[in-house]
Design brief:
The protein is an alpha+beta fold. Helix content is about 35%, strand content about 20%. The protein is built from twelve helices and 13 strands. The strands form three sheets. A nine-stranded mixed β-sheet has the order 5-4-6-7-1-8-13-12-11, with helices on both faces. A two-stranded antiparallel sheet has the order 2-3. A two-stranded antiparallel ribbon has the order 9-10. The radius of gyration is 21 Å and the shape is globular.
Amino acid sequence: MKNAVLSGTGLYRPPHVITNAELVQAFNAYADLQNAQHADRIAAGELPAMVHSSVEFIEKASGIRQRYVLDKDGVLDPTRMKPRFAPRPDEALSLMAEIAVAAGREAIAAAGKQPDEVDAVLCAAANMQRAYPAMACEIQAALGCGGYGFDMNVACSSATFAIEQAVNAVRTGSARCVLVVNPEITSAHLEWRDRDCHFIFGDVCTAVIVEAEDTATGADRWQVLGTKLVTQYSNNIRNNAGFLNRCEDTDPDARDKTFRQEGRKVFKEVVPMAAEHIEQHLHTLGFEPTQVRRFWLHQANLGMNQLVLKRLVGQDVGDDLAPIILSEYANTASAGSIIAFHEHHADLQAGDLGVICSFGAGYSVGSVVLRRVGAGR
């Protein structure tokens, strides 16, 4: 069994930023339009009036201050409140593949590899642009990689679940060098018209190279000491959009066809689940949480991450132990923990331990325990 290392990361960041103030202005304009349109029913008690959002509400609830998006105008249009993407012909590169190729090229270069040295591509994300052909196959062709590719979806844990598949492929010899890409166009599955969640998500794409340690050429190498996955069924985070909708004669714009969650239940149930998962994983490898130099956690909610870490190490912790990228990127589904790793790992030294962990719909929790190989900066 070969040792696997994580040897390069990449990040595609969209060109447009939506601040909380801009988002609140658009949402409140939408709410005013809806209240005016349904004034008679609201007065009769048939419908509740829509309540305004606020910057203070968003930041207190989440720690988010802005988000990157692929399209800004459509989201901020009070008569639309969703991105506006132009359809592309079949022979053109798909939008999801486009951002994955950008992040993938950066990860391949960071690992000191050429695209044709990559012999597997895993596209792992909370949503796929289409059913087939697989996005991974399109990304593989656009980059010039060999081997095979496939798509996988485990919601916000897609990246860590895919890393385990990549590690297993390397260890068993079915691949030498695997590219994992996480193109998250979450602006398209977010219900921007729902006050409880309209601020949560942003767009991004991350990429990771996992390869055999004996063929790794890059200076920035992290030995994968172990991976651990768990799922537990829950309806508290759900999206009913799917290929059967057209056969059910349901409204494609109905509320259940976009992201929705029971936020308080998710917080209460996922925090202990994630903390216990990380602690057990570390114990199986002979480590205590206090020996970990850095945790790169799923970026969904500031309070959730703080409580997970407090359960693990017994005290409040700062950004040095557990970096937070929420304020800039918002929740980027499976990409969040990888962004945190991408932006906050260069200062660690040889021998330092780190944990990448995601948690999300399913419920699903995935963790990757790493040890730095070679000197940090």
